[in-house]
Every structure is written in structure tokens, then in C-alpha cells.
Write a structure and sequence with these properties.
This protein has helices at about 1-15, 35-55, 65-85, 100-110, 215-225; strands at about 25, 115, 130, 150-155, 170-175, 180-190, 190-195, 205-210, 225-235. With about 240 residues, the chain is of the alpha+beta class.
């Protein structure tokens, strides 16, 4: 399916007079552990869903491309549900999926990209890693509100100098609501913890910020993000 999707999008772009972006070279984790393999595949499908959801508003002036992207989105959702079922998890844990901006999904994809023949004019954010807790193999029971999340990042890579005494926050992009911000506690150099807030479920995307709130996802992307996003699988 993935090759067919890429070829179809490239054909539509070419027919419309655009130059399709050539494919990058990717490297995915190799593992003989079936659970690790499915977890990686599920991360990719979740990101794909977020990318197509977030990109839909950019395609409203191109109906053929919007229709193709929408059709791909529904197939990605089926892939995601199939993989979650294979883990023993709910195939549809929430009523909504989470849209992602181009910089967020492009930054997430960097963990798999080896090289690209053409660099996209999209900023890549510094990496934010979720260190704990690791989700249970079947994602059951759902991670409850109040659970402490531990993240790490490299302070030398963030765009703004992080002052040790300055407050930091984790913005959780989730479902169709605005970003939920929670205060982060420092646990060492390049280390913060934050609690899962009420109302966040399914898969959220965590972003380190020096803003305590008041930003939507687009605003967080363009001037509120210090590092991220990191995928946080809650259910």
C-alpha cells in the first residue's frame, strides 16, 4: 500500500505541474521481537494518521490531491487498528485522532531518516525522548491521570537557552482539543518530569515549552516549542 500511496501522490502532483519530492533513505529498527516490531509499525501508522489529518487544510485548493490524501488516511487508520489489535489493545481507543503540523511530523520522522536527496523547507525541532514509563505490551490498562512521565533532551540543541531556574512545561497535543499544558519538574540536566493530566487519552504528542498555556498547536509549533514532539502512548 505504501508504495502505491507514494506513487499516486507523485502522479497527481506531476499532473498538476508540481515537482514531486524524491524519496528519502530510511532505516528502521531491526528486531526479532514481534512486539517491538509491531510497536514500531504502530508508531509509523499513528504518525501517518496525524500527518494526513494535519495536512488536509493545506490541500483545500486542490480537490484531486485532497481526495487522494483523504483516501490514504482511511487506509492508514485501518492499518493502525489492525496493528493495535495484534498487540491485544483496543483498535479505536478514542473518539478522535490527533492532527500534527508539518514540523512536528517531520521532526518525528528524523529518527528513521538516513538521508534525503532534497531537504524540505520545514524546520526540524530538537529531539525530546520519553524515557518512562514504557507502555504495557497490550496497552492495557490505560495510563491513568497523575502518572509521572519522564523526558530527556539535549539542552545544547534547543533554540533558546534553558535557564536552570526558569519554569518549563510539557504541552500535550491530543485529539481535537487545544494543547494541554502541564508544569514540568527538573530531574537533572536535560531531564524533566510531568504528570499525565485529566482528559488526555489514546496517543498524545509531548512538546517541551517555556509557555505555560494559551497556545494552539500551530502556535506551539512555530514559536513555543523547545524540543519534541515525543509520542506518548496512553491507551
Amino acid at each position: 500500500h505504501e508504495d502505491t500511496h507514494a506513487q499516486t501522490i507523485a502522479t497527481i502532483l506531476s499532473n498538476a505541474g508540481y515537482d514531486p519530492v524524491p524519496p528519502c533513505t530510511y532505516q528502521f529498527p531491526t528486531s526479532t521481537d514481534p512486539v517491538s516490531f509491531v510497536n514500531t509499525a504502530n508508531m509509523i501508522t499513528t504518525g501517518g494518521i496525524g500527518a494526513y489529518l494535519g495536512g488536509g487544510s493545506l490541500l483545500t485548493d486542490d480537490p484531486p490531491l485532497l481526495t487522494a490524501a483523504s483516501s490514504i488516511l482511511t487506509v492508514e487508520a485501518r492499518h493502525d487498528a489492525y496493528l493495535r489489535t495484534g498487540l491485544g489493545a483496543s483498535p479505536f481507543p478514542t473518539a478522535f485522532d490527533t492532527a500534527l503540523t508539518a514540523p512536528f511530523i517531520y521532526s518525528l520522522a528524523q529518527m528513521f531518516i538516513v538521508s534525503c536527496p532534497r531537504q524540505l523547507p520545514i524546520p526540524v525541532l530538537p529531539k525530546l525522548t520519553l524515557d518512562a514509563p514504557k507502555p504495557p505490551p497490550n496497552l492495557q490498562p490505560p495510563t491513568p491521570a497523575g502518572t509521572q512521565l519522564k523526558f530527556s533532551f539535549d539542552p545544547a540543541t534547543v533554540f533558546v537557552r534553558v535557564i536552570p531556574s526558569a519554569p518549563l512545561y510539557i504541552g500535550l497535543v491530543n485529539l481535537v482539543t487545544n494543547v494541554t499544558f502541564v508544569e514540568a519538574a527538573t530531574c537533572g540536566l536535560g531531564c524533566v518530569t510531568a504528570s499525565v493530566p485529566e482528559g488526555v487519552a489514546g496517543v498524545a504528542f509531548a512538546v517541551l515549552s517555556n509557555f505555560s498555556g494559551g497556545l494552539n498547536e500551530d502556535q506551539l509549533t512555530h514559536y513555543g516549542a523547545l524540543a519534541g514532539p515525543a509520542e506518548v502512548v496512553l491507551s
